[in-house]
Design goal:
Structural Genomics Hypothetical 15.5 Kd Protein In mrcA-pckA Intergenic Region, Chain A, Pseudouridine synthase, 9-stranded mixed β-sheet, 15 strands, 6 helices, 3 domains, alpha+beta
């Protein structure tokens, strides 16, 4: 019996020559859905002749396929009672101010305490006093009820939720066509050279650290990525930056800012620092950390309402931990 994490290898024979990789895997591993296997391929779980492969790859005779068995599919998150701050809610969509430290949807090692579980309790189990109970969309699959896009665990801020499949598809199409405008605020470790710039660097799976992404070109996992930024304030050894990603790759802002030598402050994966104490910006020594996650916040999102077509914007103020660092920089590390 196969267990999650097991590696299975096989050679392509005449019967599968010219057949797409995802189709071959779905025939061979019938316990998993094709969409689930496609997601596993996207995450780098399948190699062909030693190279991470795409779902659309057509196999050649004798090619060796190595498949790392994923966690078995779950039926979906359980409804969990938890506080959530709703910035907006109606019968077709909702907007939440996600706190840092919260995973958006269930995944390996994170089946409890997710935004998806909280949404099920608020929008499916509890009758809202504002609108009729409409529940959540299922277009994203059973483990992602209502989830149209995502934020990293330790990134706070605005996230949009679909309450039925029609609105989900309409919102998802806006993300696909890149008509959604997302604005982030970040404090960087170091100062960007230019006050405004655009970063165009392809992003793919890190060559040897599975939890990270990296700037990579000409690799099977590489995808074009574009990030625009504007420096709002400069400090000694840091800057407050407004970031407008034009694409939505995993860890895009974090990877791109690190690539120009200005990683997001306290980003454990990309900056080499996981927390910030007041002494960082010249404040009191021996004081406890005031920031223990990356200083990245999804400040606002602008899109077309899926029912009315109206262009709407939803915003969230900086949370207290990032604001605390910013206040300290203004007090102790100003360059003006």
């Amino acid at each position: 019996m196969l267990n999650p994490g097991d590696e299975v290898s096989f050679s392509a024979d005449n019967a599968v020559v010219g057949v797409r990789l995802d189709q071959v895997l779905s025939q061979r591993f019938r316990a998993y859905s094709r969409s689930y296997l496609s997601r596993a391929i996207e995450r780098g779980a399948v190699r062909v002749d030693g190279v991470t492969a795409k779902a659309s790859l057509k196999l050649k005779e004798g090619s060796v396929v190595c498949f790392t068995v994923p966690e078995p599919p779950r039926s979906g998150p359980e409804a969990e009672e938890m506080p959530l701050e709703f910035l907006f809610i109606d019968e077709v969509m909702a907007v939440v101010n996600k706190p840092s430290g919260m995973v958006v949807h269930p995944a390996k090692g994170n089946w409890k305490g997710t935004l998806a579980g909280g949404l099920k309790w608020h929008l499916e189990r509890r009758v809202s006093e504002v609108v009729d109970r409409e529940g959540l969309s299922q277009a994203g699959g059973p483990t992602r009820p209502g989830i149209v896009h995502r934020l990293d665990r330790d990134t706070s801020g605005v996230i949009v939720v679909a309450r039925n499949d029609v609105s989900h598809q309409m919102l998802a199409k806006q993300f696909e066509k890149r008509t959604v405008q997302k604005t982030y605020l970040a404090i960087t470790q170091g100062q960007p050279e230019f006050d405004q710039d655009e970063i165009r660097l392809s992003i793919g799976a890190h060559p040897y650290q599975r939890e990270k992404m990296a700037v990579r070109s000409s690799h099977s996992t590489s995808r074009d990525a574009v990030t625009r930024f504007e420096v709002l304030e400069r400090f000694k050894g840091a800057a407050l930056v407004k970031v407008l990603p034009k694409t939505g790759r995993t860890h895009q802002i974090r990877v791109h800012l690190a690539a120009i030598g200005c990683p997001v402050l306290a980003d454990a994966l990309y900056s080499g620092r996981s927390s910030i104490e007041p002494k960082f910006f010249g404040g009191p020594k021996n004081s406890p950390a005031i920031l223990s996650r990356q200083a990245l916040h999804a400040e606002s999102i602008t899109l077309d309402h899926p029912a009315t077509g109206e262009r709407v914007t939803f915003s969230s103020p900086l949370p207290s931990d990032i604001q605390g660092v910013l206040d300290g920089l203004r007090k102790y590390a100003s360059v003006s």
